[in-house]
Design brief:
Length: about 190
């Protein structure tokens, strides 16, 4: 299953974590153009905004960079987050066609320490089921996704591995350049 399509399903805001995922799912479906029609640039921007605001991209990047986050300068951190968000926005709207026929079964929430909630789901795209667990944390803007586990593989862990490899060879500036060019997608992960 395409990770970007799964990320399109990764949405949050509202009262409970599961309800916020359902609400945003409905918001995305409502914003999609009619079947067979390509989204206009305005519709793409709207969809990107809906999707992006529901994921705590800074938290994902910070966790993925691990110890390298603290070593990075504030300017580097801003560039990394901006480049990651830009890539995320583009990737999140590349696979919208399959979204209309996608079904999601929400399972019982699991409360973790620190106010973190996991929402296990079963996502079915074109008859193919995939287990997806969204990890959310409530902030002042509502529930936001901080990790997505697809068939047992953490998006953040995948990025952590990729980022560490790049930083070891090219440094933080090398990672930033790759993100800005769009050249570091972790296997089975978002953008």
């Amino acid at each position: 299953m395409q990770a970007a399509l799964i990320l399109v399903l990764a949405l949050a805001a509202g009262d409970g974590a599961t309800e916020s995922l359902r609400t945003r799912d409905a918001e995305i479906r409502a914003a999609l153009p009619p079947e067979g029609e390509q989204p206009t640039p305005a519709v793409k921007r709207r969809l990107e905004a809906i999707i992006t605001r529901t994921i705590d991209l800074k938290a994902m990047v910070e966790a993925a960079m691990d110890r390298h986050w603290k070593a990075a300068t504030e300017a580097q951190r801003k560039r990394i987050v901006a480049a990651f968000e830009n890539r995320f926005r583009k990737a999140s709207t590349n696979e919208l066609d399959g979204y209309r026929s996608t079904s999601v079964e929400y399972r019982k929430e699991v409360e973790l320490p620190g106010g973190v909630i996991q929402v296990p789901t079963r996502v079915v795209v074109k008859g193919e089921p995939t287990d997806v667990t969204y990890t959310l944390r409530r902030g002042r803007d509502g529930w936001r996704i901080i990790d997505i586990v697809i068939d047992g593989v953490s998006t953040v862990a995948n990025y952590r591995s990729s980022f560490a490899r790049i930083i070891a060879k090219e440094g933080v500036e090398g990672l930033i350049r790759r993100l800005e060019k769009g050249g570091t997608t972790a296997k089975n992960s978002p953008p």
